[in-house]
Amino acid sequence: MLLSAPLSELDSATTTDAVEDVAVRTVRNCGFGGYTYHLYRPGRGSLVYIGDWQAEWSQRYADQGYLDIDPVVERLLRSVTPFLWQDTVAQRPTGAPERVVLNEARDFGLKAGAEIPIHEHGFGVATFSVFSERESDFVKAWAEYKHNLHIFSLYFHEKYASLLPPDEELAPPALSRRERECLVWTSRGKTAWEVAEILHISERTVKLYLDAATRKLGSFSKHHAVVKAVLNRIILP
After folding, report:
1. d(Cα 52, Cα 66) in Å, to the nearest integer?
2. DSSP helix, strand, coil percent of the chain (3-state; round to 5)
């Protein structure tokens, strides 16, 4: 794939629909089955979620609370380079909850995929994903086009974000120093008891801080709160 043509099309696009059309053609021309793009901005939450995932899988993902255990999300927050979905569970034991997410995704046609993280100061996180229903097709396409696709995704994000309406951003919720500290240590895999030992406070107090932070961030669990805090630049994991 020569980048000049799709990048020129992005430059001349004047609507988000036109930008999406360029992405669909580019991804398919590379041999992938589909793509998704997700943009999260501090204070404004999830602004954009577009792409080719089945609605049934999106609903299943939400209903089961897979955001809490999705290994791709965990890796996304820590990585600035593209990575394969399968690599996120390489060290996980058979039957681990994280493997359940990817195994179920395969049942919905997401046999193999990769994530391209896009971190931008003041704009949270965006991610451009590609996937295929046939693993052999994906492996071939990724080996040949991953570098070009990385460049394309950055241009895509820049163009798409520039066409969004300039709504006024909301300030992220204010957390206390202790609430932030508890979230930071939780993001590093520490239990409430371990956090209590580190901060020299009781385990019950740690849980109270985590509950308060979860409530302020409008989250449904402490792990969801960690994700939101990182995306809003409230903490650095």
Report:
1. 19
2. 55, 15, 30
Q: What is the rounded CA–CA span in Å between residue 176 and residue 62?
A: 29
Tokens describing residue 177: 């120093």
Alpha carbon distance 210, 203 (integer Å): 11
Domains of the chain: 4-162 (3.30.450.80), 177-231 (1.10.10.10)
Q: Each residue of 155-164: pLDDT tens digit?
A: 999 899 888 8
Nearest Cα residue to 73 out of 94, 95, 46, 93:
46
* Span 198-214, pLDDT tens digits: 999 999 999 999 998 98
Closest to 213 (Cα-Cα) out of 195, 200, 65, 198: 195
Q: What tokens were used for 174?
A: 């204010």
